[in-house]
Amino acid sequence: MTSAMLLAGCATKDRLTNLRENPPNWLTPFRIDIGQGNYVTESMVGQLKKGMSREQVRGVLGTPLLIDPFRNDRWDYVFKLKRGDGRQDRRRFFVQFKDDALESWGGDPLPREGGEELLPSRPAR
Question: Are 74 and 97 in contact (CB under 8 A)?
Fold first, then answer.
């Protein structure tokens, strides 16, 4: 009985040593989703109206990620999501002002419905 326990202990030690030196392919570290930038949705874009002031646009879309010092009449909103599994999504949106009033906008906002799948995952509670 004692010898069987000793042999079982040695076999387990060998398995653990082998796992430490050669971990299985399915055993990988968890990588989180990383979202950066401005989250602009179609519903937010739907609130934009020509002639809005800069402050009104900022109230709807938030502070822009980029304000070009050489083209002060254009604001750029960029959203990038890098998922832990390696997939990436990038969205760009811009607004154009003329005489401090909103004149035009364009780009690729997130969908009105279903844009949540582009947000970083939240852990289950």
Answer: yes
Look-up of token digits 């995952």: 121
CA dist 101 and 118 (Å) reads 31
Gyration radius of the chain over CA positions: 26
Q: Set out the domains of the chain in order of their start, with CATH numbers.
A: 31-118 (3.30.1450)
pLDDT single digits (tens) 110-125: 776 555 555 555 554 4
Q: Which amino acid is at 62?
A: G
Read out DSSP for 44-82?
HHTT--TT-BHHHHHHHH-S-SEE-TT-TTEEEEEEEEE
